[in-house]
Amino acid sequence: MSSAPSVQRLLLLDTASLYFRAYFGVKDPRETPEGTPTNAVRGFLDMVATLSTRFNPSHLVACWDNSWRPDFRVQAIPSYKSHRLVKGTQDKEEAPPGLEVQVPIIRRALESFGIPVLGSDGYEADDVIGTLTAQHHGRMPVSVVTGDRDLFQLVDDEADIAVVYTARAGVRDAEVIRQEDLASRYGVSTGAAYADMAMLRGDSSDGLPGVKGIGDKTAAQLITTYGSLAGLREALAAGDPAIKGTRRTNLDAASAYLDVAPLVVHVAHDAPLPDVPLTVPRELADPETLAQLVAAYDLGSPVGRLLQALDLQP
Question: How far is CA 26 from the centre of its chain?
Answer without folding.
Answer: 20
